[in-house]
Amino acid sequence: VTWRFALEEIEGSVQHLYAQQFREQVEALSGGRIEVDVFPYGSLGTSAQLTELTRNGSVNLAFASPGHLADTVPETGLFNLHFLLPEEQEPARRLLEAPAFISAFEPAYHNAGLQLLGFVPEGWMTWTANNPLRTPSDFQGLRFRTMTSETAAEAFRSYGADPVQTPFAQVYSDLQLGNIDGQSNPVFAIEEMGFHEVQNVLTMARASRFIASVVANEDWFAGLPSQERKWLEETIAQLSEEAWTLQEDLNKERLETILEQGGIRVVRLTEDERAAFRDASLPARQRFIELTGEKGQALIQRATSIAGN
Ligand code: 6CS
């Protein structure tokens, strides 16, 4: 049996390291009966196209980032909001691994023909531009690239930016050509996509974490023999835990690489500067509630009751 697993990131990324461990683990548990074919970003298309391929069963498993998924699965827009999830790692982790939290999203994924398997952290989003982004007014009129969904765009619109939604593969050339002024991603992704080569300042605001989801085609998942489903779920549970250290190590290592290469400077926001962004970010929560209704409101409550945000 072969399981096809599609990634939204290139080789060497968090998703790629995750998928390699996934393959090893599934192959070991099944004694080689299951083979996992991993497709890094580029081979099959944009994130939106990968989601489509998963829905129609061309691939069995995929990463689906809320930044791109939220127009299809509105509740996932929660992860596009800033200053919402717990800031400390342990409570964030408890929230993202809580079965009740995960199952609150399941119906929304099912509506899209997808089975949610788990959430995977990929590190803090960091902002790049040609100037430091210390206050919301620094975003005024900035053509800022976001992932391709309304809540992803709204998060930066609330700071005064002029958001531009584009697929990942287009970001480098848009920055280089000056079609956009800035973008947001974890450090590891900035390094491997080369965005630091075409941007002057990396601002660390710790406004949001990049959280991806791992999904399966709903019918494929429902039809799995129970033994195979057990192997799948066991592997996902183990990797959801390991992903926290995996991403932390990779982000640290890639920050060093970026700093060694030079050409981009790092700005870390103070608590006061962060507080101003937090205040400015709140209208985006309203937009999310408009798009998701009571269900979205309940998710915000659940996340903030842990976070105190
Ligand atoms: O910015 C993006 O579009 C992408 N960033 C990461 C880190 N993963 C996948 C996503 O498509």
TrEMBL record:
An annotated GO BP: transmembrane transport
InterPro entries registered for this protein in UniProt: DctP_fam, TRAP_DctP_sf
UniProt entry keywords in alphabetical sequence: Signal, Transport
Stored Gene3D superfamilies: Bacterial extracellular solute-binding protein, family 7
PROSITE patterns from the UniProt entry: PROKAR_LIPOPROTEIN
Domain of life of the source: Bacteria
Pfam families according to UniProt: DctP (PF03480)
UniProt cross-references to NCBIfam families, sorted A to Z: TRAP_S1
Family: Belongs to the bacterial solute-binding protein 7 family.
Record-linked PANTHER family: C4-DICARBOXYLATE-BINDING PROTEIN DCTB, PTHR33376
Protein name: TRAP dicarboxylate transporter-DctP subunit
Organism: Marinobacter nauticus (strain ATCC 700491 / DSM 11845 / VT8) (Marinobacter aquaeolei)
